[in-house]
Backbone:
C-alpha cells in the first residue's frame, strides 16, 4: 500500500503510552489535590492570547520562542507560561476577586526551543501564586515553599533542596559597588558559576570591565558558605552599607525563620546566594529546587516574589509570590531514572466475564461496583475464555469475576485474583470487601 | 497613567471567575470519573499536530477552521477534535496497545469559527472511544450511550434524549433510489428539516434534481414516527430491497435492543432517522443528544461508528465507535439557563484564625485537617478580626476556627459555623467530625 502520513508526535511534544499516562495523571492529581487542600482556587485560562499581551511580559528570549499565528488581522500567540495569563486575568477581574487571591493552575505552555534531549516544546506547568492587593505579607514567601515541600513529599521525592535567595541583596550589593548599570551582563556571568567555575567567571567579569577589587568583593559574597544561619551572619558581616541590601537581608532572614516555622525540615531548604532568576521580573525572594542526587535535571520548581504582577495591564498595584513545577520535564526525567514507576495500564480493577449469553447479571454487578467507584469492565461471551482472560492479563487487571448458570442459581460469584491465580466463591458483600482491600 | 494592554480574553475563548471555574471542574471531574469507572484509559495528546495529519482527516469545513502556524519550514495546526489525534496515536502505537482499546480524553480543541453567541473557538471535548483490531462487537455501539446516560444523570441532567440512527439505512435507501452520487447535497438539504420544515426541504430537493416520486419516498422514510419499535417495523415495511439498507436496519434494531439491556430507560433514547452526522466519516451507528426542554442548545453529545478509524495513517483496519461531549458549550448554556448552579468560590472548608502571633498551633491543626483532605487556610494575626473574617465571608468558607491563649490552655478549639453563626468549644475529634458531616 501507499506511503501513509507520519504518525509520531512532533519532536519536543510528549505523548505517553497508557501505563505512563496513568502514572502522569496520578502525579498531576497529587499536585492538584495538595494545592487544593491548602485552599488554592483552580484557574484555567486560554492557550491562545493576543501577541501583544504576551510580548508585554516576555523577555527577549521568551519572545523568540513564542508560537505565533495570524487569524484575519489579529496576531495571536500560544502562552509560554501561566504567569502572564494570571496577570491579565487579575487585571481584568480585579473587582470580582477576593485578595489575597490564591490560585493554582495546571496547564500546557508552549516554547519553540531548539530541540534538545529532555527539553519540551509543549509542557505542563503546575503553578501556585498568591496575589495581594497593594500589599502582601512576607509569610506567603515562606508558606509557598512549605506547600511545595508537601507536594514533593507526596510525590514520593525525598532528597530535594529548595534554594532560597533574595534579589534585593544582589541589587543592593551592585549599588554599593556602583556596578548596577552593568548588572544584566554581570548576572549572566555569575549564573554560569556552577557550570564553568570561579576562574572562568572572573575572566568574564573582567571582560565586563570590573576592577579586581570589585570582583573580589563579589566573590567574598558568593563564597559565603555554611548553614543558612551562618550565611545570614556572613552577609551581615560583609560590611555592605546599602538600604536595599539590608532590606533583602532582613527579608531573607525572616523568610528562613518562617520556613522553619512552617515545618520544612532543615535538610530540604537552604540559602543559595547565586540564584538570580530573570533579573527584571522578580523583586524579592527567589526560589529554585534541585534533586540532590540529580543536579543535572536542573531546577524542578522555581519562582519568586514580584512587587507588581500586572503593571503592564492595570494601574492597581498587585504584589505576588509564586512557584511553578515543570511537571513534564520532571516526570520524563524521573521515569528515565526509575524513580517514578508505572503501576497500572488501565483504571479497571475488575473484569466481569459472563459465561452465558445473557450479560444482565454481569451488568447489575458492574453497576453496583461502579457506584462504589470500583472501575469495572464487562467481557462479552462471544470469544474464547483464553482470549477474554488474555485481555485482562495484558492490561494487568487485578480481579476477574465469572458468572455462569451455577453462580446465578446459587446467588454467588466466582472471584479470581489474577495475580495469585486464587479463585473462590463469594457473595456480593465479600466480593466488594475483597476488591476494596 | 497610560493606556494599558487589553485584558479581556480573546472572543470565543471561555474564561471563568473562580466560582464558575470550581463548578466547571466539578462537572469535568464527574465525566472523568464516570469514564474511568467504566474502565476507559486516559489519553493526552499534543495540542499541536502536523498540518498534514489534520488535513488528512478534516472535511472542507474543518480545514478552513484550523488554526495554522509555521515554525521554520514546518506547517503545524492546532487540533480541531480529539479523534484525529486518537487515530494517529493508535496507528503509531498499534503494537503496544491492547484491543479493544478503550480510551477517554478530555482536552481543549480549536476551531476558528466566525464569532457567534454560544459558539467557542477554544472548547473542551470529553471523548470516549472503543477501537477494535479488525473487528469490533456491536455491543459497544450500545454500551457507549449507556455510559453517556450515566454521565448525564450524574451531571444532574434529567430530560435528555440520545437519538440513534444508522448511516447504512440512508446509504442503502439512496442506492435503492439511485441518488447516491448526489448524496452530499441531498443530506445537506435533509439536515435542515427541523429548521426550515418539510415544504422548504422539498423545494431544495427538487433543486437537487430529484423527481417527486423519489422525494415522496424519502419523506415516507423521514416521516416514520412512533416508538423505536414502531419505527423499526415501519422501516421493514418500506419495501426497500437493498442489502446495505437491511444491514443497517438489522444493526439499528440490535443496538436498540442492547441499549435497553444496558439499562437506558426508554424515555432517554429514541431512533431519529434524520440524523446523518458528517456523511463521509461515520459508517454505521450515529448518535446525537438533545436536552428535551432546550432543543436550541443543539446536540450536546454526538458520535458514531467508523469502519476504519486510521486508514490515512496505517494499513491496520481499526473499526471504532465513539461519543464526544462538547463540555464548554454545554456548561455555558446550562449556567445561563440556571440549571448548573455555582456552589462555592474556593476549595477551602476551614479558615483557621490564630488570635496570637504564634501560628504554630494553627499550623498543626491545618496539617491534621489537610491530611484528612479537608482544605484549610490559615489567616495571619496581623490585621483586624473583622477583615480576616471578611475574607472568609467573601469566599463563603463554611467554617472558622479561632485559636487563642484560652483555647491553647484548655486544649480546645473555638469552632464557628459561618453560615449559621453558631460557635462552640470542641476538641479535635469533634471538630473533624463536625466539618466532615
Residues:
Amino acid at each position: 500500500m501507499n506511503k501513509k502520513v507520519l504518525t509520531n508526535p512532533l519532536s519536543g511534544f510528549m505523548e505517553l503510552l497508557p501505563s505512563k499516562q496513568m502514572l502522569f495523571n496520578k502525579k498531576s492529581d497529587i499536585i492538584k489535590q495538595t494545592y487544593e487542600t491548602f485552599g488554592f482556587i483552580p484557574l484555567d485560562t486560554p492557550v491562545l492570547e493576543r501577541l501583544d499581551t504576551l510580548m508585554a511580559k516576555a523577555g527577549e528570549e521568551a519572545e523568540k520562542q513564542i508560537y505565533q499565528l495570524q487569524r484575519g488581522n489579529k496576531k495571536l500567540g500560544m502562552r509560554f507560561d501561566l504567569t502572564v495569563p494570571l496577570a491579565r486575568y487579575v487585571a481584568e477581574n480585579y473587582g470580582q476577586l477576593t485578595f489575597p487571591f490564591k490560585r493554582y493552575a495546571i496547564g500546557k505552555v508552549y516554547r519553540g526551543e531548539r530541540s534538545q534531549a529532555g527539553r519540551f516544546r509543549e509542557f505542563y506547568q503546575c503553578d501556585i501564586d498568591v496575589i495581594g492587593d497593594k500589599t502582601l505579607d512576607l509569610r506567603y514567601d515562606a508558606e509557598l515553599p512549605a506547600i511545595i515541600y508537601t507536594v514533593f513529599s507526596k510525590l514520593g521525592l525525598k532528597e530535594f533542596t529548595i534554594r532560597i535567595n533574595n534579589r534585593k541583596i544582589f541589587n543592593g550589593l551592585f549599588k554599593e559597588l556602583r556596578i548596577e548599570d552593568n548588572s544584566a551582563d554581570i548576572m549572566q556571568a555569575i549564573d554560569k558559576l556552577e557550570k564553568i567555575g570561579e576562574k572562568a567567571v572572573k575572566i568574564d567579569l573582567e571582560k565586563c570591565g570590573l576592577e579586581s577589587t570589585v570582583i573580589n568583593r563579589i566573590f567574598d559574597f558568593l563564597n559565603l558558605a555554611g548553614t543558612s544561619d551562618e550565611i545570614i551572619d556572613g552577609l551581615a558581616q560583609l560590611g555592605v552599607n546599602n538600604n536595599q541590601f539590608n532590606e533583602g537581608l532582613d527579608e531573607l532572614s525572616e523568610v528562613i525563620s518562617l520556613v522553619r516555622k512552617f515545618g520544612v525540615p532543615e535538610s530540604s531548604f537552604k540559602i543559595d546566594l547565586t540564584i538570580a532568576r530573570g533579573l527584571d521580573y522578580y523583586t524579592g525572594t527567589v526560589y529554585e529546587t534541585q534533586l540532590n542526587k540529580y543536579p543535572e535535571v536542573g531546577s524542578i520548581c522555581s519562582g519568586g516574589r514580584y512587587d507588581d504582577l500586572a503593571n503592564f495591564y492595570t494601574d492597581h498595584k498587585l504584589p505576588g509570590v509564586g512557584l511553578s513545577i515543570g511537571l513534564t520535564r520532571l516526570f520524563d526525567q524521573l521515569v528515565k531514572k526509575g524513580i517514578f514507576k508505572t503501576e497500572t495500564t488501565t483504571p479497571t480493577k475488575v473484569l466481569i466475564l459472563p459465561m452465558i449469553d445473557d450479560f444482565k447479571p454481569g451488568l447489575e454487578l458492574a453497576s453496583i461496583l461502579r457506584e462504589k467507584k470500583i472501575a469495572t469492565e464487562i467481557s462479552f461471551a462471544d470469544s474464547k475464555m483464553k482470549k477474554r482472560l488474555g485481555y485482562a492479563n495484558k492490561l494487568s487487571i487485578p480481579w476477574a469475576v465469572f458468572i455462569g448458570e451455577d453462580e446465578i442459581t446459587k446467588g454467588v460469584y466466582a472471584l479470581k485474583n489474577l495475580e495469585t491465580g486464587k479463585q473462590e466463591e463469594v457473595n456480593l458483600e465479600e466480593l466488594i470487601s475483597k476488591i476494596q482491600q
Summary: The mean pLDDT of chain A is 93.
